[in-house]
Amino acid sequence: MLLLRTYLADFVSLIFPQLCVACSENLIANEHLLCTGCLYNLPLTNFHLQPDNIVARQFWGKLQVEAAYSLYYFNKGGNIQNMMHQFKYNGMQRIGNLLGNIAGQQLLQNEIFNSADVIIPVPLHKKRLKERGYNQSASFAEGLADKLNARIDLDNLVRTVATKTQTHKSRFARFENMKEVFSIARPEDLKGKHILLVDDIVTTGSTLEACGIELLKIPGLKLSIATIAYAE
């Protein structure tokens, strides 16, 4: 019976090949979403081992952040961009869960991240959420929660304004575009908590900064940040 199932699986993969979401090569047995080559060769940052990494420095003097981290470097036209396009626009929500698991395994090695109480994804506006069907940052948060001893809060941080795309805006224009976009529905739930705020890609950090400003109004709250990728 096992041999029959193996032959059947091989036949299905021949007719409907499963492709790596990063490099588009055929996946083989026991590979899931990412091929073994990409799993080990995508550009990891190892920022969990570098307290003063470039993402953390983006928030110096702007937000009181305990620690900041990105899993991968984002290179335009590279495999990370291919994977993120599949994740955000082709309905492949499972990519976020997988990358959250990978990131969570790294963050277990960091005492600060490992002490987070609540994981909060950067929210989409309800209109954008309806169009896409899911929040990619929430998928990443779910994968992180599988590894870290922290709960997810999906509806406390709220995006109240549907902003236009940030692409091609300067850092100042991006920050201005994000002013008063977010609010906290139940601040009492987060008093004294260590929050891990997560997003998919960080560039200038303006969206995360706008979220962080609102969160840090809550008494006793500590803030850390994690993203899937860092783009220069």
Automatic annotation (TrEMBL):
**InterPro entries listed in its UniProt record:** ComF/GntX_DNA_util-trans, PRTase-like, PRTase_dom
Give the residue spans that cross the bilayer.
none
Can you give the residue ranges of the Phosphoribosyltransferase domain?
A: 137-228
CDD domains (alphabetical):
PRTases_typeI
Q: Which domain of life is it from?
A: Bacteria
Q: Name one Pfam family in it.
A: Pribosyltran
Name the protein family. Answer: Belongs to the ComF/GntX family.
Q: What is this protein called?
A: ComF family protein
Q: Which organism is it from?
A: Mucilaginibacter glaciei
